Amino acid sequence: MPDASQTAAAESAAEPSAPPVPERRFSETLLEVKNITLRFGGVKALTDISFDIKKGEIRAIIGPNGAGKSSMLNVINGFYTPQEGAITYKGRHRKAMRPHEAASTGIARTFQNIALFKGMSTLDNIMTGRLLKMKSNIFLQALYWGPNQREESEHRAFCERIIDFLEIQAIRKTPVGRLPYGLQKRVELARALAMEPDLLLLDEPMAGMNVEEKEDMCRFVLDVNDEFGTTIALIEHDMGVVMDISDRVVVLDYGRKLADGTPDEVRSNQAVIDAYLGVSH
Ligand SMILES: Nc1ncnc2c1ncn2[C@@H]1O[C@H](COP(=O)(O)OP(=O)(O)OP(=O)(O)O)[C@@H](O)[C@H]1O
Question: Which domain holds residue 138?
């Protein structure tokens, strides 16, 4: 008579194996950073970092605390100007981005520590994401008349679509300061989407969330990428999430690039394993 392990082995051999998930392929480069070095006085936050982000992909930036991940996002959206290196975005080569230029050319970002107007409603916070798209100036808008009224209605309708998409209808009038953390993160994502970005930078979108909230956020990130075709670069500490949703992963450690590749390549990279297990350099 076969023992239990033989039975289990026979059963698993008989089970049809799940079809492999086809690897998504991307060819067009949306953004490339080349030899970026960023210093704060004597502290080198980034040293000679190069990588690219392809149009349509979900790209993760990971690394231990202080590795330089947020600094990298800040270089990409122009908050920090690197001392060395260059950025090519949408085929245009530049020494550094400027925040306004980054925003007006389609780069939106969320922050590690939520940066919303806490006293304002969800809808009004999301509307602030439309400001760059508004043609009439803020004084004319105050009149809420004629063309201004029409423009405001169109922007409002766009925001309502995002509210539906992210399933936050029930809190559209709630001041965001009263919302639980997970929902505030979702409102921040909504505001970034209101900018209709081509490149969305997410700084720890799932930090501080419970399992259910994380699952929701993963689903929304994948849906945004899928339905709007938005390219996404995200920093995330939850390795399960990173490996599940990213097409490619770049790993930073002490401001240097340690590895770059598919989740499988990165997962099996010895230098990455050492960095995460704290092997001394
Ligand atoms: N504005 C700043 N002034 C001085 N030093 C800074 C500044 N911003 C970042 N640094 C330093 O640069 C290094 C990289 O920091 P950064 O916040 O980019 O890392 P991180 O990988 O995002 O870390 P964490 O996962 O903890 O958020 C750290 O040594 C940090 O102290």
Answer: 117-196
Q: Cα 146 to the chain's mean position, in Å?
A: 37
Structure tokens at 104: 């007006």
Q: Using a 6 Å cutoff on CB, does residue 139 contact ligand 1?
A: no
**How many whole angstroms separate alpha carbon 159 and alpha carbon 181?**
21
Q: Does the reported pTM lie above 0.95?
A: no
In which residue are the tokens 């992963």 written? 249
Please give the residue that has the higher pLDDT: either 112 or 192.
192
74 lines ligand 1 (CB under 6 A): no
**Nearest Cα residue to 260 out of 245, 271, 249, 276:** 249
Pair of tokens at residue 77: 């959206």
Per DSSP (E only), the strands in 41-83 are: 43-54, 58-62
Give the total number of structural domains in the chain: 2
Quick one: 124 and 180 in the same domain? yes
Whether 261 is in a domain gets the answer: yes
**Distance separating alpha carbons of residues 104 and 280, to the nearest angstrom:** 43
21 falls in which pLDDT band (50, 70, 90)?
low
Residue type, 197: P
58 neighbors 234 (Cβ within 8 angstroms):
yes
Comparing 64 with 11, the larger pLDDT belongs to 64
Is the shortest distance between the CB of 113 and ligand 1 below 6 Å?
Answer: no
- Span 131-155, mean pLDDT? 64
Same domain? For 204 and 260 the reply is yes
CATH number of the domain residue 280 falls in:
3.40.50.300
- In this structure, which residue's CA is closest to atom 12 in ligand 1? 45
Q: Torsion angle of alpha carbons 76, 259, 25, 213, nearest 10°?
A: -70
Give exposure, 52-64, as e/b (b: 16+ Cβ within 10 Å). bbbbbbbbbbbbe
Strand-pairing partners, residue 54, are 29
Residues 101 and 66 placed together within one structural domain of the fold: yes
